[in-house]
């Protein structure tokens, strides 16, 4: 067989799916690895997609996406953050947040460029950066409650820094950024020759106070790529709808990348997303799901504390990242043993960069029954644990 691309050959396959795959083979297995809502996609969204298919809406849309959807997004952003983005020129609909990440990086990065990312971090960023021959510079947030300080970011900036990426609420820590922290970061980054990328795919999953965003700061508007999507907020990961907001000149460039890799996002999904953002029942649905997640978070947090595991209270997303290093500094080995002994699947923290090592990620998108039983088993496992 001929040779493959060098950079692809160097990529590792994430070792995380294997825990979810293995646990599904146990009849009494408990899967606490979910990276998506356990709720079904709401009826009105499914209806809108079905109606679109039946009406024959299976042709390409505009490269940037349906104007109805782009307008629904800019209306939502105006209401949420009191900022105006233009639906014709400053929005691009992508195939999930994933394609937004990929297309933005491909639009801005040259070989040797650096991207600063606070860590522990979502595992989907670094491989794209590596494919482009660029470099990720992780900033350790483990000593600062998973929140980066402006001083830490400042220390990581070099002449090669092309972008700083923030993902708040964060996968895998569940941390949010306060208005004050964002203000400090804005002061640091404004007027510098670098982009700010903000991945806010969990912005609707907030359990304390309000979500704040870089998009509220006009000082950084010319540098900002705002990523969001419907996958997590509306329990529609399989519909593959994400979006990018940025200045017109930036959207023009990202649209070139997007049209060559995708032409457009899937048309029936775009109709579903339009309904998701405009239907009168949508807000209540999000509130109801968050009420359930908050209850599960509170339960999980209390149980983990009772087990004596150091843990931060997540204020967003649907993940908690307890520290298991007193038992085993190797999170992959710990998760493997937990699965074998108790048939409970969690994600090893090492999947989220080396700064996640010594932790495990537990999802509270799982059902309350699964969380209760998962906690009972984890507690038993820790009681019997033979330390390494
Ligand atoms: C932080 C973060 N960004 C982006 C994504 C990708 O989302 P999508 O399903 O919309 O591609 C995920 C999915 O887990 C995520 O956790």
Automatic annotation (TrEMBL):
Keyword annotations: Aminotransferase, Pyridoxal phosphate, Transferase
Source organism, top-level taxon: Bacteria
EC number: 2.6.1.-
CDD domains documented for this protein: AAT_like
Keyword Transferase: yes
Segments forming domain Aminotransferase class I/classII large: 28-378
Cofactor: pyridoxal 5'-phosphate
Xref: InterPro entries: Aminotransferase_I/II_large (IPR004839), AspAT/PAT-like (IPR050596), NHTrfase_class1_PyrdxlP-BS (IPR004838), PyrdxlP-dep_Trfase (IPR015424), PyrdxlP-dep_Trfase_major (IPR015421), PyrdxlP-dep_Trfase_small (IPR015422)
GO biological process, alphabetically ordered: amino acid metabolic process
GO molecular function per UniProt: pyridoxal phosphate binding; transaminase activity
Enzyme class: transferase
Family of the protein in this entry: Belongs to the class-I pyridoxal-phosphate-dependent aminotransferase family.
UniProt-recorded name of the protein: Aminotransferase
Native source species: Macrococcus bovicus
């Amino acid at each position: 067989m001929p040779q493959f691309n060098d950079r692809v050959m160097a990529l590792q396959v994430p070792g995380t799916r294997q825990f979810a795959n293995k646990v599904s083979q146990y009849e009494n297995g408990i899967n606490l690895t979910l990276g998506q809502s356990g709720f079904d996609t709401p009826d009105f969204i499914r209806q809108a997609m079905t109606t679109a298919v039946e009406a024959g809406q299976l042709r390409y849309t505009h490269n940037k996406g349906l104007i109805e959807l782009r307008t629904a997004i800019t209306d939502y952003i105006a209401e949420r953050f009191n900022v105006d983005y233009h639906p014709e020129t400053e929005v691009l609909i992508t195939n999930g947040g994933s394609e937004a990440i990929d297309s933005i990086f491909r639009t801005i990065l040259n070989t040797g460029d650096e991207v600063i990312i606070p860590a522990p971090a979502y595992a989907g960023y670094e491989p794209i950066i590596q494919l482009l021959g660029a470099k990720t510079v992780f900033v350790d947030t483990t000593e600062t409650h998973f929140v980066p300080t402006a001083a830490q970011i400042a220390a990581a900036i070099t002449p090669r820094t092309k972008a700083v990426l923030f993902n708040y609420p964060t996968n895998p820590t569940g941390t949010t950024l306060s208005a004050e922290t964002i203000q400090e970061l804005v002061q640091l980054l404004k007027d510098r020759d670098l982009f700010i990328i903000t991945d806010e795919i969990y912005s609707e999953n907030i359990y304390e106070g309000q979500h704040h965003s870089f998009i509220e700061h006009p000082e950084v508007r010319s540098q900002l790529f705002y990523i969001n999507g419907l996958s997590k907020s509306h329990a529609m990961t399989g519909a593959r709808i994400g979006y990018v907001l940025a200045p017109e000149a930036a959207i023009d460039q990202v649209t070139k990348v997007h049209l060559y890799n995708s032409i457009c996002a899937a048309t029936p999904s775009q109709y579903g997303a339009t309904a998701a953002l405009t239907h009168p029942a949508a807000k209540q649905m999000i509130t109801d799901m968050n009420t359930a997640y908050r209850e599960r978070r509170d339960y999980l947090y209390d149980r983990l504390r009772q087990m004596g595991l150091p843990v931060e209270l997540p204020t967003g997303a649907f993940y908690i990242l307890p520290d298991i290093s007193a038992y085993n500094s190797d999170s992959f080995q710990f998760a493997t043993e937990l699965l074998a002994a108790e048939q409970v699947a969690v994600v090893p923290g090492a999947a989220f960069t080396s700064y996640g090592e010594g932790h495990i990620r537990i999802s509270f998108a799982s059902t309350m029954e699964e969380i209760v039983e998962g906690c009972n088993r984890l507690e038993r496992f820790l009681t019997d644990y033979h330390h390494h």
